[in-house]
């Protein structure tokens, strides 16, 4: 477990109370780039009334996601940077070691990613009597049903509608807008500012927004500063803001990122911390 930093006006543990069956989000990992001890890379579990959806599967996320395999309804990958997808194969191989489910787990990926993932699997055969002869080599035949999504085409998962929205990043990248039971949350994935935020997050109850940078991105790589995340939340009528994708994880730095967002957004602001659950239904005074 990470040592929890102190936060400006934020008490993450207060969110671990059971607030019933509303839409919830558990942070499995929230580190930008490669993980640190106790801080896996990107992975977020959305709890629906009728299942769970994993958004991204970066390094350090697979073991946690596998522990929820019985509840998992689908996996969505925002883009093919390793900090968002590299544990997908680890998750798949883990699931091949268990009794196989009656139906494969839908894994929604960007265009072109299905071939990349299959190639990756083939590059690391476990072997047995020959390449492809071990059960762990049959991730895509036995446990994953890989589907390439199209931006703007909503996907139904149980009670939820999940729409991929094209963002602005170095690689093609989609954020996801999740609507379920009259509640809504949006995940920015990796992006700089873009008009697509209105489609992604206009009026949502909770925006899970990357806040990677201290200052606006001048490199063209495509990330948000914490101040930009706060400004976007204000401009698009977001109720609550959950900041994530941390470049650093010490408490002082996180406090400063919250303060930068706070200068632009009057609503509730929380900090993504591994293994904490945030309740979308929760309405509290900021
Ligand atoms: Zn990233
Ligand atoms: Zn990225």
From TrEMBL:
<dbReference type="GO" id="GO:0042781">
    <property type="term" value="F:3'-tRNA processing endoribonuclease activity"/>
</dbReference>
<dbReference type="Pfam" id="PF12706">
    <property type="entry name" value="Lactamase_B_2"/>
</dbReference>
<dbReference type="InterPro" id="IPR001279">
    <property type="entry name" value="Metallo-B-lactamas"/>
</dbReference>
<feature type="domain" description="Metallo-beta-lactamase">
    <location>
        <begin position="40"/>
        <end position="223"/>
    </location>
</feature>
<protein>
    <submittedName>
        <fullName>Ribonuclease BN (tRNA processing enzyme)</fullName>
    </submittedName>
</protein>
<dbReference type="InterPro" id="IPR036866">
    <property type="entry name" value="RibonucZ/Hydroxyglut_hydro"/>
</dbReference>
